[in-house]
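Q: Two folds, back to back.
A: First:
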Amino acid sequence: MKKVLENCITEQKKLRSYAEFKTVIKFETYLNTIMNQKTRVNLTRFRMGVSDLEIEKGRYKTTPMPREFRFCKLCQSIKIQAVEDEKHFLLHCPFYISFRNVLYKYIERKYKKLSTLESNEIYMVI
């Protein structure tokens, strides 16, 4: 299964974001701890890379858009060209700073060293 995940990363296929932070395929604890079904489903979709981000929507256009041109519409409105993928949404998009701050405060209660991590490391923690 690890080989399948590695192929997802190198070939930019489905599960690409999941494959970036997962090394072991196992039942995830959050599936039992998050009681709200809608929240659980949305988190699972996000982690699996099947969200409503441009990185996914561009794949399904009549003429599929190359990955490097699947820009965040919000960032484009302020003349920033950034591919809207899970990392951009979660770590970098300036339009979600206030939400990100709330999320980080929540995570820091459980993971005290969050502020010392690089963004790729934060992505793995989240």
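A: Second:
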Amino acid sequence: MGLRVTFELDEDDLKHFRLIMRQARTAATRIAPEEIVAAAEELLASNASKGSPAFIAERLQKLRLLIDMLSDIEWRLPHREADRVLMALAYFAEPEDLIPDHIPGLGFLDDAIMIELICRELKHEIEAYQDFCDFRRRFRRDSGRSIRVSREHWLENRRKALQSRMRRRKRKD
């Protein structure tokens, strides 16, 4: 039988996590983008080898999505948005985080909280990328039929439309 534990972070708690994130972003300006991504990849690999509770593993899947968003050649995230994602991943480049990852069951809790905050901040970028991936899967599945545009042309037009929508939604918020 499982145990459900629920907690709520109030505005002061969130301010504390945001402060830590700002500090990580400042420190990350001295780190190469590849190193930031490698640190996030290492967190995923470390979690896979140690295993984590399901609530942590779910958040780490979102981290995988952010890394994929940066490295997806077909998506070609614009420079400004790529910088936002990199700065969001900056926390994971810090060797010392709030709760050391080696503590069983809780070591990745701070990482999971940070991922949730990042996903709120990058909501529109994430939604646009997920839409792009869904559409790309359908396109590849259906490509056996007669299609009027090339794959490259479709990807370029679809990517621009999704990124434009992402910016409109972001301005609206």
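Q: And?
A: The radius of gyration is 18 Å.
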